[in-house]
Amino acid sequence: MNTTLQVQYKQTALITGAASGIGYQLAYIFALNNYNLVLVDKMAQKLTNAADKIQQECGILVKTIVKDLSIKTSPEEIFTELQQENLKVDVLVNNAGFGIYGLFNETSLNAELEMLQVNLVCLTHLTKLFLKDMVKQGEGKILNVSSAAAFQPGPLMAVYFATKAYILSFSQALASELEGTGVTVTVLCPGPTESAFHERTGVAGAKQVKDNKMMDAETVAKIGYHALIEGKTVVIPGLKNKILAEVVRFTPRNLVTKIVKSMQEIK
Length: 267
Known about the structure:
- The protein has a 7-stranded parallel sheet with strand order 3-2-1-4-5-6-9, with helices on both faces. A two-stranded parallel sheet has the order 7-8.
- Helix 1 links the parallel strand 1 (about 10-15) and strand 2 (about 35-40).
- It is globular and about 55 Å long.
- Mean pLDDT is about 90; it is low at about 1-5.
- The protein has a single domain (about 10-265), classed as NAD(P)-binding Rossmann-like Domain (Rossmann fold, 3-Layer(aba) Sandwich), CATH 3.40.50.720.
- It has about 270 residues and is α/β, with parallel strands linked by helices.
- The chain is about 50% helix and about 15% strand.
- The protein is built from 10 helices and 9 strands.
- InterPro entries: NAD(P)-bd_dom_sf (IPR036291), SDR_fam (IPR002347).
- This is SDR family oxidoreductase.
- Belongs to the short-chain dehydrogenases/reductases (SDR) family.
- GO terms for molecular function: oxidoreductase activity.
């Protein structure tokens, strides 16, 4: 679905990875709050289904962009397409991301380079492109989806954890730089969440997934949305995740790494 959003001005949110999981739930919440949407995902049919459902139920306008964000030209192509349509993005949600499970010396280099492109480079690139206009206009919001994984090293998912640490650090630094500009940056750091992520990653059998009651994607999205609207910088859904994020700050790094490794192992 590629509906022009200029028929009636409302604020517009651009959301990557919007066809399912937290991204879809965020899209639905923005729609319920009267935002028009630009939804980006590489899964064309799922994206179309999501857009149709949201538009029919919420009465807002939706533009879909089918794009593989592991291709380095994708951010510029998205930005250019919206510029050509004179479409202002008021809220940027960098949600797209994926993980890879396994020993680093055994996992696929190509897959991990693609993960770096999606989780880290694309997020940075899109933020750079859309932020300039937000600052110029004196208003705008950015929501970057990181993870509770950002607070410690992650053996068996070493690159994934590192990308999430980057997102957290980048978002906090950017939020500080933007104070007084009218633009805010929020970073959402959920723990294990009910979605297809764990099956796709191959980590569904890990202790931390099997032994923990996971928060559902809708709840995580609601927490992230409200934190964004309130202008908070860091939000960690769930009391247990908040406590763990604090505890690791005061625990020897080598011990933290050993504990995370034991939680990541599939037994």
